[in-house]
């Protein structure tokens, strides 16, 4: 009986080892598949702005050769494709910096309300007028200790997504409000929404929800991954609430910097 027991135990152990090997093999296969899919999507995404850019430039060259006037809107479109390309490459570089722990932050006292206003201004200047962006500023200045360049990137990313995933236009509501020791940024859109079972995974690298096909909405699935890293390294958190077909609200909570008392001006003594 004892011998039989040992044999059964041996078989069980071998089966466990076999199952573990199969699991690791499947995981490795999945990782290779994700990487291959990503390379296909990334190459496609990088090529998408390049083709119209090359066409525009060829058109401009022809006109100049013939001594004709150049249409400024052509140049603007060419610049937009170039900006898109730069943004994609920056996302790829940032994601790789995060992976290797090389994304440096340069924190300084930063006015979040001013940053949000700036990002909205820039975004309005580069997008068509199909959407309205409404900003509800905080009653008092919202100051955080953070890297202004990286925080601007987070705000811009959330705003870009709100516009991109609200294809029918509508109003994007942005708000900043104090919550105790924190300041809460909300970006609410009336867009396509996110399926409930996918919401937790949005902040993973390369993840794109199943209701966005590469065909209709370009993207690499890196923006929110980068946002989460930046926000968490500022001691904050980022999350989403969403309903398919009704829209999404992204939240970012960051610790505020207590307002420093303004030092009285130093007046030279009179003699
Ligand atoms: P990308 O937009 O390049 O795919 P992100 O990391 O910014 O990458 O977003 C990851 C995924 O989250 C998107 O592919 C999309 O499925 C979903 N998503 C992000 N923002 C929104 C939004 N405002 N509305 C609906 N879905 C969104």
Automatic annotation (TrEMBL):
* UniProt signal peptide: none
Identify the domain of life.
Bacteria
Report domain Histidine kinase positions. Answer: 41-258
Q: What is this protein called?
A: histidine kinase
Q: Which residues of the full protein are shown?
A: 407 to 677 of 679
């Amino acid at each position: 009986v004892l011998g039989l027991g040992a044999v059964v135990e041996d078989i069980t152990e071998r089966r466990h080892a076999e199952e573990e090997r199969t699991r690791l093999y499947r995981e490795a296969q999945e990782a290779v598949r994700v990487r291959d899919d990503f390379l296909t999507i990334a190459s496609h995404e990088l090529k998408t702005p390049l083709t119209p850019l090359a066409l525009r430039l060829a058109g401009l060259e022809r006109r100049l050769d013939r001594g004709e006037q150049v249409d400024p809107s052509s140049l603007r479109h060419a610049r937009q494709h170039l900006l898109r390309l730069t943004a994609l490459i920056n996302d790829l570089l940032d994601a790789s910096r995060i992976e290797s722990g090389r994304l440096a932050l340069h924190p300084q006292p930063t006015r979040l309300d001013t940053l949000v206003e700036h990002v909205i201004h820039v975004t309005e200047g580069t997008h068509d007028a199909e959407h309205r962006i409404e900003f509800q500023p905080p009653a008092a200045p919202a100051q955080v200790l953070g890297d202004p360049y990286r925080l601007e990137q987070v705000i811009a990313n959330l705003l870009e997504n709100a516009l991109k995933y609200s294809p029918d236009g509508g109003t994007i509501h942005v708000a900043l409000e104090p919550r105790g020791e924190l300041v809460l940024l909300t970006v609410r859109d009336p867009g396509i929404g996110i399926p409930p079972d996918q919401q937790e995974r949005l902040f993973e690298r390369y993840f794109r929800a199943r209701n966005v096909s590469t065909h209709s909405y370009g993207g690499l699935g890196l923006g929110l991954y980068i946002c989460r890293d930046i926000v968490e390294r500022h001691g904050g958190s980022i999350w989403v609430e969403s309903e398919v077909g009704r829209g999404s609200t992204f939240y970012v909570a960051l610790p505020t910097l207590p307002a420093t008392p303004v030092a009285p001006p130093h007046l030279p003594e009179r003699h």
